[in-house]
Amino acid sequence: CPDSLLLHEQNQTRLYLLNVAQLQPERDMTRGLGKHSHHNAPVKMLPTFVRATPDGTEKGDFLALDLGGTHFRVLHVRVVEEEQKVLKMDSQICTIPTDMMLGPGQQLFDHIAACLGDFISSRNLKGQTLPLGFTFSFPCEQKEIDKSILIRWTKGFKCSGVEGEDVVKLLKEAIQRRGDYEIGTVAMVNDTVGTMMSCGYRDQSCEIGMIIGTGTNACYMEEMKNVKRVEGEDGRMCINTEWGGFGDDGSLKDIQTTFDVMVDEASVNPGVHIFEKMISGMYLGEIVRLLLVKLTEDKFLFSGQASETLLMPGSFETNVIYPFISAEHSLENVEHILTKLGLKWDEVDARVVRVCCDTISSRSARLCAAALAAITNRIRNNRKLGHLKTTVGVDGTVYKKHPNFGEELQATVRLLAPACHITFMVSEDGSGKGAAMVTAVAQRLAPACICTLYMPLY
């Protein structure tokens, strides 16, 4: 019976959650923070050099630059202290031509500087030297808040002369070559950190940022004394966990199903980001599709007859899951989806597909919650508190659009972190407003030179 098969998977996952939430992540997080152990740690625990969350006194005008694909955004953001608001005053989307994605790096950064200059001129911001929050969504090793070395290009980019270089320096040099405008201090921003900071101005207890969308990641405020790879003992620093790599050392193999292994083997990076492949939006639909194919082969579904479309990798996208689970979607919508997949089905088939969608979604929410519980429990233990009250800033399409994901995640976190009272706040444009807020906090701390006192140890 397919229900029994899926129930077994659910129970297996539930039994493993305690270890996921309390034992393995704690060890991996400590390894990632270690001076010598971080090189081989599956959870990278990257220092961000963000030393504080907003305290509500930040104010002023900022620029934000969000570069992560074939388009990038330039924004003008205003932080209003009296109203405790972060306002997006204006924005502009710029395109990066395909040939520029493969050409010299100087050409790319000259193009970015030109678009930034056009935005500043057209919005009458010339003459002002505004600080800039720079969201650069490619694998980087951050050295300081304004120094970030590109490790490798992804997403179709292969510009020469950029890998191994400081992208902030390259941007500043491009602006200097123009000579018709200036920018102030620059703060490099990871999108997860931006999520936390965009919520932190509205709620000063927000010390965790989490993204569960196409991919997944989280950040949190760690005690400096535990960040062994960076000098300094006092205060805290935001750590970009890169928790998608949890399990890359085989620690999740006990709950990896045949379908997880198939998804991993077919990916562009087999053996890497195992946790992400079990829970994020890029992969959930494909896991469901593989499960449906298996049940069809075993003649539990569609009278044992799979369609060409169902057998095609990627044909069952994650957003197709939502209508099967949501009470708001009618049977007519479900019928349309199954028919579009070229399947001959009946009401029992539709119910089984719903169970599959619900089971894979629930597993994703529970595993995500287990990792989040590990972080909240760590914060509480770090501070030797009997009870922790904190807020998690959240972004990502799976959390926002899946009808049950948020509810199940929150319920599981309460179960696994009973001594933590956690509020969830949906981020408003972490890559834009959040980037500006990181810059605003860095500017607030600048008089004490806190941003440059902490240097990485290698």
UniProtKB/TrEMBL annotation:
EC category name: transferase
Keyword Kinase: yes
Enzyme Commission code: 2.7.1.-
Top-level taxon of origin: Eukaryota
Keyword field contains Nucleotide-binding: yes
Keywords on record: ATP-binding, Glycolysis, Kinase, Nucleotide-binding, Transferase
InterPro entries, A to Z: ATPase_NBD (IPR043129), Hexokinase (IPR001312), Hexokinase_BS (IPR019807), Hexokinase_C (IPR022673), Hexokinase_N (IPR022672)
Family membership noted in the UniProt record: Belongs to the hexokinase family.
Gene Ontology terms for molecular function: ATP binding; D-glucose binding; fructokinase activity; glucokinase activity
Cellular component GO terms, alphabetical: cytosol; mitochondrion
Organism annotation: Takifugu rubripes (Japanese pufferfish)
Domain Hexokinase N-terminal stretches: 27-201
Residue ranges annotated for the Hexokinase C-terminal domain, each copy included: 207-441
GO BP, sorted A to Z: glucose metabolic process; glycolytic process; intracellular glucose homeostasis
Pathway: Carbohydrate degradation; glycolysis; D-glyceraldehyde 3-phosphate and glycerone phosphate from D-glucose: step 1/4; Carbohydrate metabolism; hexose metabolism
Protein name: Phosphotransferase
Catalysed reactions listed for this entry: D-glucose + ATP = D-glucose 6-phosphate + ADP + H(+); a D-hexose + ATP = a D-hexose 6-phosphate + ADP + H(+)
